[in-house]
Design goal:
Helices cover about 35% and strands about 10% of the residues. The protein has about 300 residues and is an alpha+beta fold. The longest helix is centred in the middle third of the chain and has 22 residues.
């Protein structure tokens, strides 16, 4: 092929007939950020969970609508105060996450229990829009346009995208050319999990130690859950959202006290409560989603 202007415009030109143009995530000038769509959640989730839990005390539920809100909430409270969390596996959630980086999905898939994934394949999906779909990290994105760091970043991404497109357009398979793409190239992934898996994953990913992108994804996922389903049933989603808390809310103390651990905006208060023997249920000066605030674990570079 000699035409380098429009690489990949004809599938038969490509080296692998399975290759296709990836659906565009962002256009020039768009803000590159994560989006979360909750495609499916178990209807009447707390009633479903409670219908299974009731058998622990010999009550047989044959219709989840027979479970009262009071009974469902009582079981949820029991599960937050004990290790009895198996019934949470009766609740499924299916998200489509878009605009997340490959760095993020490398971490997402570490949840191996109660989770499934289908991700856009860089082996076959040709990222012709790569320069506009590579996420700029926060330490650079807030800098002036002429700052040396930003200039270097943008120049490197533009060069990589140009080289990638022209390699693919010249006949190099996408699965080979993809080796050039940055870790911060954005992608889309279907993420299916049980509520138990999601709540346990939240313990680490809502902690200040987690990568900044997790905070952005959780800021998308929590509202998606709260707004899902009929309005009259959303009392269940509101209660479920309270399960998403940093790991210190489960253990009662900070688990990241090594010299190599990152800063944390709530660590001092957590350890003060721990020293006083106060349970997380009694913490009234710490919001469990404080880690979602901007700069929760970062010091802005000078």
């Amino acid at each position: 092929m000699t035409n380098m202007e429009e690489p990949g415009t004809q599938v038969q030109r490509w080296a692998d007939v399975a290759m296709y143009n990836a659906e565009r995530l962002f256009a020039p000038g768009d803000e590159v950020r994560p989006r979360a769509i909750l495609l499916y959640m178990t209807p009447n989730p707390l009633r479903v969970m409670a219908s299974a839990s009731e058998l622990y005390r010999g009550t047989v539920v044959r219709d989840v609508r027979d479970v009262t809100p009071q009974t469902a909430m009582a079981w949820l409270r029991d599960m937050t105060m004990t290790k009895l969390s198996t019934p949470l596996e009766w609740i499924d959630l299916h998200f489509l996450l878009e605009g997340v980086t490959r760095a993020f999905t490398h971490q997402l898939v570490r949840q191996r229990v109660g989770a499934g994934y289908v991700q856009e394949s860089q082996r076959f999906a040709v990222k012709e829009n790569a320069e506009f779909e590579t996420r700029m990290p926060p330490s650079i994105s807030g800098l002036p346009d002429d700052h040396p760091w930003r200039v270097m970043w943008e120049a490197a991404v533009e060069q990589i995208a140009w080289t990638y497109r022209n390699l693919v357009g010249s006949g190099v398979p996408a699965e080979d050319a993809r080796g050039l793409l940055p870790t911060n190239i954005t992608t889309r992934v279907h993420y299916k999990t049980t509520l138990r898996g999601l709540a346990e994953h939240a313990g680490m990913r809502l902690c200040s130690q987690a990568q900044y992108e997790w905070k952005e994804v959780w800021r998308e996922m929590i509202p998606a859950i709260l707004e899902y389903g009929p309005e009259e049933d959303r009392w269940q989603q509101e209660a479920i959202a309270q399960l998403f808390r940093p790991v210190c809310y489960s253990t009662g103390k900070c688990e990241f006290l090594a010299a190599t651990d990152r800063a944390c905006r709530i660590r001092e208060r957590v350890m003060r409560h721990h020293a006083a023997g106060e349970s997380p249920q009694d913490w009234d000066d710490i919001h469990p989603h404080e880690a979602l605030l901007e700069g929760a674990a970062r010091v802005r570079p000078i």
